[in-house]
Amino acid sequence: MAMIRLTMAQALVAAMAAQRTVIDGQVQPLFAGVWAIFGHGNVAGLGEALYAARDRLPTLRAHNEQAMAHAAIAFAKASRRRRMMAVTSSIGPGATNMVTAAAVAHVNRLPVLLLPGDVFAGRRPDPVLQQIEDFGDGTVSANDCFRPVSRYFDRITRPEQIVPAFERAMQVLTDAAECGPVTLALCQDVQTEAFEYPDWFFAERVWQPRRARADETQLAQAVALLKAAKRPLVVAGGGVLYSEAEGDLAVFCTAHGLPVAETQAGKSALPHDHPLNLGAIGVTGTGAANDAARHADLLLAIGTRLQDFTTGSRSLFADPACRIVGLNTQTFDAGKHRAQPLVGDAKVVLAELGASLQGWAAPAIWTQQARTGRTAWLETAARYTAAGSEILPSDAQVIGAVQRRSLPSDVVLCAAGGLPGELHKLWQPGAPGGYHMEYGYSCMGYEIAGGLGVKLADPAREVVVMVGDGSYLMMNSEIATSVMLGAKLIIVVLDNRGFACINRLQNATGGASFNNLLRDARHEMLPEIDFVAHAAAMGAIAHKVASITDLEAAFDEARRHDRTSVVVIDTDPLRSTDAGGHWWDVAVPEVSGRAEVEAARRSYVEALGRRNY
């Protein structure tokens, strides 16, 4: 065994550059690159190592640490978790800026390798600039914030530790069940220290997805439950897309007459025009999907966490006898809500289920009811998305305009506020992956950085970022990065002058409009924010439009541009799609001086009685 003398940082970079994956029969680098903002905690060690390897492992510069981590996460999601990126920052605020993004990756089960710089392992210069000091624990640093939001966390305090740490990191990053963020906190002095590393650490390694088959007993139990069901419904989650099982899902549901409802992460798993696709489920669901969910006596939940927006805070599945079969790679998710677990890969297990169910189909009346419900919902949705004569259009009308001017290959991306609910109900994706929503963590500020990550993952597709003014103001700096990298985005900014979604929720729970819309926040003067000038200052082509008709024309023009384009339109902060949807558990105060809150509390208590427990 040959030994190679390198610094710890050089060894880490060389090992990362050696990792491979296979996509469509082609061997590709597993790590597409490293996002980096350098500081005193990583520039001399990891920065020097990245410079030497820049032709094998590209380094990308961003403008905000949280944003560059969002871009890396979106890249991994758009790549179906088959490729990923790493992110490095200095110690201090650079590191803690990434904690929010780590939570996004953790909730959404997405791989990202976080490499924050850390304090000196040798401690001679303690306290170093930006060091957090714990009065009772000398081993603590700011990077300990990453522990609860990492699937695997390690602090590298000796150069040889990188070997087992990186091996473990790769196992987590590439495993269908454990997948999520990994944090390797790199003590800044250790980054520069040399060690004799074994040459096998730098050998090319090809990672391919582990496709676990179902346990025979679990499979038999699931088959029995399905055959006994009179009103079975499939709930498609993000795991369908991560498993590349969308084609298998279509075949399975067609063969057995099973209607399908989609979570936020699962939307686009079944073609929008499939006659059994009922669309979105849950709090932001369609009338068709939620009606089917209320009457279903069996749910086949595929690749979903079954969080409260999907289950209507455990009140949507109204049949007391309703059973759940949880098809998931992760046992933690497969058994939620007292489900019959069916642990395995979606693509493989759907084939196994199909073979065992050969000749069986759901009752024809149930399948036909689903088709009828779908048709009725599409007619309803069309009314909300049609252009109107109102001075200020609704979010739904803006969505309708973008939909009409989009191509089937386009990707629409969003993250937080009222838009995710409207898009979940109303958007009609043209192809798998054409709907990219970060709604597990509902992270404001993800949108533009996430759009950049998607564009880097799939440059041939037009990426359309839809974002409200509130989220735009939280994080917009990666507009400049997209221009710098030639990664063109079309960004549609819906300006309703505040946090309109939460204002509506505030009102719905009896509260007065307060501190959400700009006009209802404490102010001496209301700001007139010129989003066009702001976006143009970062290098984008920007326009403001006054109507839905103008928006459609501006969108067509943006498609013809060769760099990031921003289109701004004023929208109504109060109107939303009141068709579809379902109750969501948002606690209302038991005591209030407002009659509106007391009335909302009575309604809330009544709704609590409709939960499953």
Structure description:
This protein is an alpha/beta fold and 613 residues long. 38% of the residues lie in helices and 18% in strands. Helix 12 (308-311) links the parallel strand 15 and strand 16 (323-328). It is globular and about 70 Å long. The chain starts with a strand and ends in a 5-residue tail after the last helix. Residues 417-569 form the Thiamine pyrophosphate enzyme TPP-binding domain.
Could you state the CATH homologous superfamily of the largest domain?
Thiamin diphosphate (ThDP)-binding fold, Pyr/PP domains
Total DSSP E strands:
23
Shape: globular
Enumerate the spans where pLDDT stays under 50 for 5 or more consecutive residues: none
Largest sheet: 6 strands, parallel
Structural class: alpha/beta
- Please state how the strands of the largest beta sheet are arranged side by side: 5-4-6-7-9-8
What number of domains?
Answer: 3
- Give the rounded overall mean pLDDT: 97
What is the CATH architecture assignment of the largest domain? 3-Layer(aba) Sandwich
DSSP summary: helix tally:
24
CATH T-level topology of the largest domain: Rossmann fold
**Radius of gyration, CA atoms, in whole angstroms:** 25 Å
Percent of residues in helices: 25-40%
First-last Cα distance: 61 Å
CATH class of the largest domain: Alpha Beta
Beta content comes to 15-25%
